[in-house]
């Protein structure tokens, strides 16, 4: 069946009262971004509280569905026939053709569901369903009616602007369209967790930018490329992600030189948060996002999180906070980032990591240690900020 139109159903966003149009416009924009790499056959149409993707040329069905399934806010995707002829005979003829094609002669049960939105259309929904059902039974000997549990639910929508026929409803990801819930800065490392954290926050409608700290020559170009690749995978869902790449080497070496080994990770993490927050604030960011989950490593115990949190004034979102590693891995596999995340490239923190990092850091001690950095740290942070590289990562 060569469909020329998809009906995009959205749930959560439909209930937003007066703001509804903003959500619909954001959804239209995100659909456009998702379909852009697939060619120019697509037209996204917002019509009477409905969103359609219409096609006026060749397109790949599977790729199109896969792209639409990555757009947050989409609850389901229904490949539809849009009819302009409104007479009962014309609708019946199209419905017969449609069911013959989708069943390909196989024995199937069906039921017609009619929604009569155009109240001037003659007959009740039940009457229309019954008479169309009778025509279909007559014309297609392979079909029988099952009102309780039909294999095919043939939907007929009679609307003022046209008639819709559809039988398939393909699930979308749900959530809210990106761009409807503010901006946040994701701390994106090359690991498994932070891309998943970004996915989850983007799913709530938040527009993301990302910051990655690298430490050349201790970390390689390939490690950096891996993070760019992860940001591109994230961009399939979140839309284009501006990735800020910050050179952390001198800061890290300085901390290494001045501070106790067991406190290195915490102090480095505190500087990452400070820098990411500064970049966020310069770029409309209203929150930070990390991939931390309680107890996963020494720097993610509750006292450690207290300590890293303390340097931020923006809220820090940690959507994975209560997840086990296995749950995070499953999500990474589902979003398609896992294979890239496990590529074995060095991370800037693992190189300088102590054998026995503190798991219960005392904030006052950490602050005391940081005083030893007073002489040069401001200048080093300023240089790191000034020399950031920005890469626009698109799907
Ligand atoms: N080099 C880095 N650049 C940017 N953010 C980082 C970096 N290293 C760590 N982070 C941030 O700090 C969080 C905790 O990092 P950590 O290395 O302790 O944990 P992790 O479980 O290995 O996380 P991930 O799998 O995301 O790397 C990460 O999820 C990420 O948000």
UniProtKB/TrEMBL annotation:
Record keywords: ATP-binding, Cytoplasm, Nucleotide-binding, RNA-binding, Thiamine biosynthesis, Transferase, tRNA-binding
Enzyme class: transferase
Record bears the keyword Nucleotide-binding: yes
UniProt similarity note: Belongs to the ThiI family.
Species assigned in the record: Stomatobaculum longum
Lineage: Bacteria, Bacillati, Bacillota, Clostridia, Lachnospirales
A Gene Ontology term for the protein's cellular component: cytosol
Localization terms from the record: Cytoplasm
Pfam families: ThiI, ThiI_fer, THUMP
Coiled coil: none
Binding site for ATP: 187-188, 212-213, 269, 291, 300
CDD domains xrefs: PPase_ThiI (cd01712), THUMP_ThiI (cd11716)
Domain THUMP: 62-169
GO molecular function terms attached to this record: ATP binding; CCA tRNA nucleotidyltransferase activity; tRNA binding; tRNA-uracil-4 sulfurtransferase activity
Name of the molecule in the record: Probable tRNA sulfurtransferase
Enzyme Commission number(s) from the entry: 2.8.1.4
């Amino acid at each position: 069946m060569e469909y020329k139109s998809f009906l995009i159903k959205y749930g959560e966003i439909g209930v937003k009262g007066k703001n509804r149009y903003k959500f619909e416009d954001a959804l239209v924009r995100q659909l456009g971004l998702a379909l852009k790499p697939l060619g120019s056959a697509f037209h996204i149409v917002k019509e009477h509280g409905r969103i359609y993707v219409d096609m006026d040329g060749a397109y790949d069905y599977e790729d199109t569905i896969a792209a639409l399934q990555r757009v947050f806010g989409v609850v389901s995707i229904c490949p539809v026939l849009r009819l302009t002829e409104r007479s009962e005979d014309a609708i019946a003829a199209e419905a017969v053709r449609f069911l013959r094609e989708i069943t390909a002669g196989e024995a199937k049960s069906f039921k017609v569901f009619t929604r009569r939105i155009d109240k001037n259309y003659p007959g009740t929904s039940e009457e229309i369903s019954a008479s169309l059902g009778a025509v279909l039974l007559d014309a297609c000997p392979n079909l029988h009616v099952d009102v309780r549990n039909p294999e095919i639910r043939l939907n007929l929508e009679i609307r003022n602007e046209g008639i819709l026929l559809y039988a398939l409803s393909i699930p979308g990801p749900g959530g809210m369209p990106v761009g409807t819930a503010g901006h946040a800065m994701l701390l994106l490392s090359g690991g498994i967790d932070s891309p998943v954290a970004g996915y989850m926050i983007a799913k709530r409608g938040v527009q993301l930018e990302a910051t990655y700290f690298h430490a050349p020559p201790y970390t390689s170009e390939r490690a950096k490329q891996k993070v760019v690749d992860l940001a591109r995978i994230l961009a399939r869902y979140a839309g284009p992600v501006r990735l800020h790449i910050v050179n952390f080497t001198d800061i890290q070496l300085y901390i290494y030189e001045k501070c106790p080994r067991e406190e290195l990770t915490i102090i480095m993490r505190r500087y990452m948060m400070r820098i990411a927050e500064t970049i966020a604030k310069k770029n409309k960011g209203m929150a930070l996002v990390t991939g931390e989950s309680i107890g996963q490593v020494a720097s993610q115990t509750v006292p450690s999180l207290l300590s890293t949190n303390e340097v931020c004034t923006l809220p820090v979102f940690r959507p994975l906070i209560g997840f086990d590693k296995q749950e995070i891995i499953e999500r990474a596999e589902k979003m398609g980032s896992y294979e890239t995340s496990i590529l074995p490239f060095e991370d800037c923190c693992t190189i300088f990591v102590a054998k026995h990092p503190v798991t219960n850091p005392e904030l006052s001690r950490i602050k005391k240690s940081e005083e030893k950095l007073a002489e040069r740290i401001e200048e080093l942070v300023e240089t790191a900020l000034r020399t950031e590289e920005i890469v626009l990562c698109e799907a």
